[in-house]
Amino acid sequence: MDDSSPQTIFLKDYTPSNFLIDTVSLDVNLHPTATRVHSRLEIRPNPDAATRSTALVLDGEDLELDEVRLDGRKLDDSDFTRTDSTLTIPGVPDGPFELEITTYCNPETNKALSGLYRSRNIFCTQCEAQGFRRITYFLDRPDVLAIYTTRLQADKEMAPVLLANGNLIESGKNSSSGTHFAVWEDPHPKPGYLFAMVGGNLVCVADTFTTLSGREVDLHIYVEPGEEDRCAWAMESLKRSMKWDEERFGREYDLDVFMIVAVSDFNMGAMENKGLNVFNDKLILARPETATDADYAAIEAVIAHEYFHNWTGNRVTCRDWFQLCLKEGLTVYRDQEFTSDLRSRAVERISDVRMLKTHQFPEDGGPLAHPVRPQSYIEINNFYTATVYEKGAELCRMIETMVGREGFRSAMDLYFVRHDGDAATVEDFISCIAEATQTDLDQFMTWYSQAGTPEVVASLSYNAKERIAELSLSQVTPATPGQVKKRPLHMPIKLGLLGPNGDDLPLRLENGDDIPDGLIHLRATEQTYRFTNVSSPPVPSLLRGFSAPVKLTVNLSETDLEFLMAKDSDLFNRWQAGQNYALRVLTSATAGFGNGEEPAPASSFIGALAATLRDETLEPAYRAEVLKLPSESDIAREIGQNINPDAIHSAREWLRAELSRALHRELEELYETNSVPGPYSPEAEDAGKRALRNAALALLAALGDESGINRVREHFDAAANMTDKITALGVLTHLEGSARETVFDDFYEQWKDDHLVIDKWFALQAISSLEDAPSRVVMLRKHPLFSLKAPNKVRALIGAFANMNPTGFNRADGAGYELVADVVLEIDKFNPQISARLLGTFKSWRMLEPERKAKAKSALEHISSNNNLSRDLFEIVTKTLD
Ligand SMILES: [Zn+2]
User: Fold this and answer.
1) What's the CA-to-centroid distance between 329 and ligand 1, angstroms?
2) How far apart, in whole angstroms, are the C-alpha atoms of residue 320 and residue 426?
3) Which of 78, 583, 614, 635 is the most exposed place for a label (fewest CB within 10 A)?
């Protein structure tokens, strides 16, 4: 933190830039410690500016300024002023002018990984959100769009490959110096955050794609030498993405080449820079022996996500950072749809909702709650959140539910026609939908400005004499920090009423209106629907497909839940019924364990679960989801207050053991019949079988008895792919004994030279529910393969511990909190984005029982008492404690 305290930036204060930049010519001489950047900018006053000014204020950070020229004239030091973050030239012409700036930056010491930095000797950039200002002085805001030409020069041996956005227009050797150059031109106007350049010793895996209109596009994936055989799936995923975006949204790629570069050190997953995506290498590199089914699926989804940004984000970008959901929510929605179309729609929906509830619901219910479009921020990097991404995607999905798939497509077509080349707002997007589909979205807009997860309470009553089923719905959104008063939201609620044999009854309202698609619109605080001609008491299936991101409470009996688990035609709700049933059993068992009581037997739940598992009409991937009990954090969220993570853990382990005992024969059979012979394929069908088989294996070992452990050992030894290996490690990490130590040692010996696979070894030790997990994590911090400077390592060890080890992180003595707090402070000295993100794991601390709450609070206070915090960490710790 600077001596001045961090400033809050407000959406309401947005004003257009006083100046625009039409073209940017960069001449970059890559050097590890002193990269020279010469930029030539064609600038003019912005005709739409609110006020006319002749003072040009450019953003810049950590730059060494060499020279400034205005229309060719070198400026004296007295012609401009500088601060830590700006360069101001007070008297620029009131018409167009040319500005040349020469600066130096130091990629080697840049451990914030924002701007230009080096990852394992590869020069690469990350400019979103505000990294371009660490490369050169600039109007670093998303509504300043320019055409870029980039000339890169470097020692040929150090960086034989030189890449930037756009198309390559020239390259060659400089005769004497041992250096070479490449000139790249991007014809599409873009903001600075989409700029990228890369230089290094990389090999190219090449393919081509022929677009809808018959243009051939080169596809290049660049990796470190030796990794070429790990790119096939990424390439396949890219081609699928390009094809899908043409078919589903009519979007074609627009440059001659599409490039992806994989680097090891990256703050995020990947970045959609125009024509030159930069990826965290764990989301590119895969072979069956090194990557799990989940890795393959993540690669496919993230490649798609970044590719789809070419239209939703790049061709149409955001006016300001408050509009981040405009590109992220929409693009997450698009990548979820891509996966749903390519794989199983029901399984994808389950996994998306699980993600939303695990990450976004706690955010919405805690001190960091913010609307999908925030009203203010201190550090924009703190707003790359589950709310902006995942809840943002849910808003797009609700719109699609309301206007239909075709309506949504026609609205998107209008959006692209109207805003191509623009920096747009949420209002621009919503007007296109409203106009193209003649839909009133005025009330719906509240979703973008109101934080918090709405709570919907439903009750169904039946009048046999009148043959009427009456459904009452009410909604309330709890207060969130800074937003006490909430307005009712417009929610699409998909529903069905199940008759005695499980069929969906026709939905006819008392006024004669039919609801053929089962979609009703909840707009008021309370609404009642009376369905006529219902001949027996129906069972309601509400919020089908999770049609709105809300917490639903409904008066269902255990018999109703069992009925829905067996009969609901909506596969998502069938799964949800099983989860709800399990949560009832688990919350009551948790209360029991908290009071030292034996839980009541769970035989009817187990029977219902067994029936679903036996249903061969359900695909294996789906049944695997059914077999997964709610997580410990799901149970904590359900209980909501005075949380004792140990009691939750005991309850969940108890139910797993009950399932293991009661379903032993069924689980063994699932294990035997779902083995996948032949060569490994990452496609959904085989992956689904492995998921079901591995879920059965894990449950079979839940008793911790010798035969269960031996089966896991054998599974590990026989495993021919990483999915099966990891499953075995994931089971054994929780079981004390020699089997655990042996497999972890074997795994380490086999994979210690692979920087990606070894991250799994770190993570699986960090999530252990055994007593010694925190001390093991402390010990692993000192492991020679671990580094706090590498975000993937931090996420693997410390992130996994804080996010996925509820009993270890929340240890009663506070050791887990202290451990994470120490790491946060250490990392904050050089990488504020990662430290702030890691501290986000404390977001649910107020839900804990009093003793743990006090320990968590003191760890947070220890951080906040430090007066050298980054702006990023300052914002998170202040809000978390507030
Ligand atoms: Zn994105």
Assistant:
1) 8
2) 11
3) 78
* Ligand 1 geometric centre to CA of 407 (Å): 24
Among residues 100, 272, 300, 306, the one annotated as catalytic is 306
pTM of the model: 0.98
Ligand 1 centroid to 549 CA: how many Å?
Answer: 20
Active site residue 306: yes
Secondary structure class of 410 (helix, strand, coil): helix
- Beta bridge partner(s), residue 527: 473
DSSP string, 204-223: EEEEEEE-TTS-EEEEEEEE
Q: The sheet that has 167-173: what strands, in order across it?
A: 73-74, 64-70, 97-105, 35-45, 19-29, 146-155, 179-190, 167-173
User: Which two three-digit tokens encode residue 51?
Assistant: 């006020």
Helix or strand (DSSP H, E) at 189: strand 179-190
688 dihedral zone (left: phi>0; alpha: psi -120 to 50; beta): alpha
User: What distance in angstroms lies between residue 699's CA and the mean position of ligand 1's atoms?
Assistant: 36
Q: Is 26 helix (H, G, I), strand (E, B) or coil?
A: strand
Query: How far, in Å, is the centroid of ligand 1 from the Cα of 389?
Result: 8
pLDDT of residue 546: 98
Protein residues placing their CB within 5 Å of the ion ligand 1: 328, 331
d(CA 20, CA 46): 5
Q: Give tens-digit pLDDT for 212-221.
A: 999 999 999 9
pLDDT value of position 3: 47
Contacts of 483 (CB under 8 A, 6+ apart): 369, 371, 450, 451, 452
Rounded (5°) CA angle 303-308-312: 145
